[in-house]
Specification:
This protein is mainly α and 199 residues long. It has one domain. It is built from 8 helices and no strands. Helix 2 packs antiparallel against helix 3, helix 2 runs parallel beside helix 8 and helix 4 runs parallel beside helix 6. The termini are far apart.
């Protein structure tokens, strides 16, 4: 058993390292700690390689997006619309206006990614890859803006991703996304407490 694990680890060390740092990323996100963003950048850089090797091209592209949105989130959490009383950017709820414009953007993103995957790649699961990717793009932007509903989107994305990564044989990533799903639920309730306190 130990030999099998060592052999697997020697072949999948990038995935394993990405999974470990990814758990730190979610932990920091829940705590609203600024280390969310540097750990997010590092996790994304590692997963570019993992998803390229697994032919999950939309998710690979998503990791590149994560690097840039992490830079934005880092800046926004440091310099954004700070609440002077608590000294940090506050947790907010999604406004009707933002929800209205995010919906068509999400749909358009889904169909654009689906078209690219079906016509220009050998992706074995273009519909699921496109769905997870488009929702993840929106959820990460919402996280960067400290919109509490980002966690609800992440719960859906993470739960669906568990099945996808299991199907593709990415065992460390499957476990990671099981943990992500549980942590996203915890994140929602933690941010909701903060929202009620400071909102």
């Amino acid at each position: 058993m130990w030999e099998l694990f060592v052999r697997w680890l020697s072949e999948h060390y990038i995935e394993a390292l990405g999974a470990i740092i990814g758990i730190l990323y979610i932990f920091f996100s829940i705590r609203q700690n600024i280390f969310t963003w540097p750990t997010g950048i590092l996790t994304s850089a590692l997963y570019v390689l993992v998803f390229f090797q697994s032919k999950l091209y939309a998710m690979m592209g998503l990791q590149v997006y994560y690097v840039f949105i992490s830079i934005y989130g880092w800046y926004y959490w440091l310099k954004g619309a700070k609440n002077k009383e608590v000294g940090k950017t506050p947790v907010i709820r999604i406004s009707q206006k933002v929800f209205i414009w995010l919906t068509p953007i999400t749909i358009a993103t889904y169909f654009t990614i689906l078209y690219i995957l079906k016509n220009f790649t050998d992706s074995p699961i273009p519909y699921m890859d496109s769905l997870i990717t488009s929702l993840s793009i929106i959820a990460t932007w919402m996280l960067a803006r400290k919109i509490i509903e980002n966690w609800l989107v992440w719960i859906l994305v993470d739960a669906v991703s568990v099945g996808l990564y299991f199907y593709r044989g990415l065992w460390a990533t499957t476990i990671l996304f099981l943990v992500y799903t549980i942590m996203a639920v915890a994140g929602y309730f933690e941010w909701r407490k903060d929202f009620k306190t400071n909102g």
